[in-house]
TrEMBL record:
Pfam families: Phage_integrase. Gene3D superfamilies: Intergrase catalytic core. Keywords: DNA recombination. This is Tyr recombinase domain-containing protein. The lineage of its organism: Bacteria, Bacillati, Bacillota, Bacilli, Bacillales. InterPro entries: DNA_brk_join_enz, Integrase-like_cat_sf, Integrase_catalytic. It comes from Sporolactobacillus laevolacticus DSM 442. Signal peptide: none annotated. GO terms for molecular function: DNA binding. Residues 90-239 form the Tyr recombinase domain. One of its GO terms (biological process) is DNA recombination.
Length: 276
């Protein structure tokens, strides 16, 4: 639609130029200028994927004049790598600050457990609300058709949470319950509110408002990929299907990793320091 609006007169695919893609990306960035940090990061990552789709489509149509590589194009329009990743949002220091923040507030054990589960598995809110101690056996989490290891530090927090739930006379065996009604399992919106609390760490820093289960999930998937986890392993642990993974890990990312020939002997969990 963008291309047809700019060039209403028909042009063949061979007339499609690098400048057209550059203009399109700049146009997309302008649309996002008033959105918050997390949205901006996601949108620029999406631009990477759009570039890959455009390039693949043109190649499939026999175009031979679209030579520029993705990173060359990004460099050409002066986008920096730090602008397209959320690495700084979930730095080690940030994670320590979050854990310290939750430890000093009401429902500290529950909220800490929620955060650590997100860091460990990247679960969506709908999955978080279904987690049950009935599915924990021998320090493993049985969920759907998967069996996931529970790291030691996370297991200790979950054990403490189970004791707290019992002390509060919770009627049920799920992980996460409402603090107002101890027989009501936390709903999706309630998880949002727990993460919104992080904004109180620093009202002037939008970073804290950008930390959500969705942002953590995307960061975890990207970091696992960079830490030499296979696509199959990432899908198995996070429960993300291939379509969702493709929205986070682009073809260009895979190509770049293969070309780098970087070999990592151990696929270490990205947030190992707070889980093991």
């Amino acid at each position: 639609m963008y291309y047809s609006n700019i060039h209403p007169k028909y042009r063949s695919y061979d007339e499609f130029r690098e400048d057209d893609v550059e203009d399109f990306i700049l146009n997309e960035m302008d649309k996002k200028v008033n959105e918050n940090v997390a949205k901006k990061i996601t949108s620029i990552q999406t631009l990477y994927n759009k570039y890959s789709h455009i390039r693949s489509f043109l190649k499939s149509q026999g175009s031979t004049k679209f030579y520029i590589e993705r990173d060359q194009l990004i460099e050409k329009i002066n986008l920096k790598e730090k602008d397209i990743t959320e690495q700084n949002i979930l730095s080690d220091e940030t994670i320590k600050t979050i854990l310290g923040f939750y430890s000093k507030r009401r429902e500290s054990i529950r909220n800490t457990a929620i955060f650590l589960v997100c860091l460990c598995y990247g679960f969506e809110r709908s999955t978080l609300s279904k987690l049950s101690f009935d599915n924990v056996k021998n320090k493993k989490l049985f969920i759907e058709d998967r069996v996931l290891d529970i790291p030691p530090k996370l297991f200790n927090v979950l054990s403490e949470l189970k004791s707290v739930n019992k002390k509060n006379k919770v009627k049920g065996n799920y992980f996460f319950y409402s603090s107002i009604n101890n027989s009501k399992v936390l709903a999706n919106q309630s998880f949002n509110e727990i993460f919104k609390l992080l904004g109180k760490i620093d009202d002037n820093d939008p970073k804290w408002n950008s930390i959500t289960p969705t942002a953590i999930r995307a960061s975890l998937i990207r970091r696992m990929f960079n830490n030499n986890y296979s696509i199959e392993e990432i899908s198995y642990i996070t429960g993300a299907d291939l379509i969702n993974l493709a929205n986070i890990i682009s073809y260009e990312d895979i190509l770049s990793k293969v070309k780098s020939k970087k070999k990592i002997s151990v696929n270490k969990h990205p947030f190992n320091f707070v889980l093991y």
